[in-house]
Amino acid sequence: MPLRNLFVEARRRKVLRACAMYIVAAWVAVQVAGMLFPAINVPDEALLYVWLIAVFLFPLVVVFGWRYDISADGITRTPPARPGEDFDPTLRRFDVALLAALAIVAVSVLMQFGTQIESGAVRLGDSISRFSIAVLPFDDLSGDPDEQYFVSGMQSSLIDGLSRVRNLRITSKVSTLPYRQSGGSLIDIALQLGVARIIEGTVLRNGDRVSIALRMHDAEKDQQVWSARFEDDLANIMFIQARAVQEIANQVRVQLGPEEREHFASARPVNAEAYNAYLKGVFHVERFTPEDIEIAATHFEHAVEIDSGFALGHWGLGKHCLFQAQIGMLTPEQARTQCLPPVLKALELDPFLPEAHFGLACIRTWHHFDWEDARGHWERAIEINPSYAEAHIFYSHYLGFIGELEESTQHAEIAVELDPYNPFTMGLYGVQLVMRNEYEKALDVAAKALSMAPGYAFGYRPQLFAHIGLGNEEEVVRVTADIYRSVREPEIADVLESMYRNDGFEAAMLWDADNLSQQYESERFPAFDIAISYSLGGDYESAINWLEVAADRLDPNTPYMIAVMRGPDIRKHPRFIALLKKMGLDYWAANSEARVIHR
Predict the structure, then answer these.
(1) Cα 423 to Cα 410: distance, rounded to the nearest angstrom
(2) For position 258, what pLDDT does the model report?
């Protein structure tokens, strides 16, 4: 058949129209896949298989279009150019066999390449997202030890910016710190942190001029896949952050959402001196010592003195205050008075600052027991910054308080995934496990936290709670003594252990409770801790008395009575149930009432 006649016949049989419609449909499918794959953690290489599927199915479309028509009557044979009166368009046995063969080939193509798409997403392991990144500590090219705070701040700035991208999973800064000048291979570091890509960087500051060079390595390919240098004035640090984040997202094939694009497009200059003071404050807060906490306060105060409209500076003051409250440097009353104003000011200046939402959620949860108002701020903080490990782990506790234990576990596990080498995160995860009665697992997690930071208070807490839940009296005494020794009270530890050996568990716990209660006002011992000791000693009336004191003072520890007060005698006590209801812990009150009904 001449080529011209072939073309005319193809047009008559509507083959060209079928091919055109298929090409448009295939193009739409490729575009949709290009937008959808990043959102569901499918690697960008998988887009190639979508193209291959489209190409391999094309000949089947040509064959089908040449021989068959689709009408209201279904699939029929295409009539010849001059059909005779006896032409029957209905399918014959050969046509059914041919259509079945075409369908089998089409399904085989889809399964073959579809399997390639699926397997391409898990070559790093099922638990490692293709869009996970760890930013390692930057190198300081100046060689000046006094610049350490600034280099650390530049790492934090990039992590904060990348964490704003919802489709990325960014490892917390704390978990990257052990790899400062570690000398290990990048692929080993990536596997240990559970990420697909590693970013390294160098920083050089000359006056107010900043130069940051970045390199990104692909763990699977074991090679550098991108590098760039960003240079500008310190006042334009937010522009540097925005440009770097957008280039990295583009390199990883992640599309920014409307709110993310708006955030980076709205970057504005900062007051260089105020920003520098803020970085110094953060650097000292991250050292976690009482001396550094006091130094940090002076830097944050200096930042807001220089620029009263600097949202990060006000958040720094709020963070400093909340940290003081957390380690017992402030009473609950002082914390409520002092911590709220700077957090509210930061939120007023920047409603899209995730740290400010996090801070307000913490205050509403632990300093006001306002579960309803807190929830919106927890959700907003995580919505703006999905890689905010600290927000995820504290939100898991909030969800535990209100009885949403499954969702609580989900957020706790996300936090551990984002921040696997932070003893603080691991300790809080241990407490979340105690809420779920997973005591043995909590002990394993607590041991991991203590191995990272021996003597760390947040490692002892879940350990103590888990042993209480398991009824391990000897271990409860041992951990309590360890806590006393960690806060430089060895004499109390010795007496407690001696009383346990000579007089038994309950006598030792009652002595501890009486000793703490005598020092309650002068030493700021939490009423909640006194209640624990009375409960372990079997004096439930006194235990509830102290829980009521803790609740009235809005002691941040009080909600954790749901985790540690697990003895049946106290859980069924009418005053204990009434206290749960008063605090709005309705899920746990209902559980306790159910125990009373079924006893």
Answers:
(1) 19
(2) 87
Tokens 């038994």 correspond to what residue?
504
Which pLDDT value is given to residue 96? Answer: 63
CA 155 – CA 74 distance, rounded (Å): 63
Determine the residue type at 140: D
Torsions phi, psi for 194 (to 5 deg): 70, 45
Residue 121 Cα distances to 37, 386, 483, angstroms: 10, 21, 46
- What are the b/e assignments for 75-92, b being 16+ CB within 10 Å? beebeeeeeeeeeeeebe
Nearest to 553 by CA among 369, 395, 403: 369
Average pLDDT of the residues in 403-413: 96
The pLDDT tens digits for 372-400 are 999 999 999 999 999 999 999 999 999 99
Question: What is the SS3 string spanning 49-72?
Answer: HHHHHHHHHHHHHHHHHHHEEEEC
Q: What is the mean pLDDT of residues 470-496?
A: 92
CB atoms within 10 A of CB 370: 13
Write down the domain spans for the chain. 3-120, 132-261
Separation of alpha carbons 447 and 24, rounded Å: 59
Mean pLDDT of the chain: 85
**Encoding tokens for residue 556?**
């941040």
Helix (H, G, I), strand (E, B) or coil at 215: strand
Q: Any alpha helices (H) in 402-472, and if so which ranges?
A: 405-418, 423-435, 439-452, 457-470
Residues 291-312: b if buried by 16+ CB within 10 A, e if exposed: eebeebbebbbbbbebbeebbb
* pTM greater than 0.90 (yes/no): no
The CATH number of the domain covering residues in 132-261: 3.40.50.10610
What digits encode the pLDDT tens for the residues 228-274? 999 999 999 999 999 999 999 999 888 888 888 888 888 899 999 99
Based on the number of CB atoms within 10 Å of its own CB, is 219 exposed (0-12), middle (13-18) or buried (19 or more)?
Answer: buried
- Quick check: 500 and 492 in contact, CB under 8 A? no
**DSSP H or E segment with residue 293:** helix 290-306
- Angle at Cα 485 formed by Cα 481 and Cα 486, nearest 5°? 115
Q: Which of 63, 193, 44 is nearest to 133 (CA)?
A: 193
What confidence tens digit (pLDDT) does each residue in 84-125 have? 556 666 666 665 666 676 677 667 656 665 555 544 433 555
Tokens found for residue 181:
């000048």
Given a contact cutoff of 8 angstroms between Cβ atoms, the answer to whether 376 and 407 are in contact is no
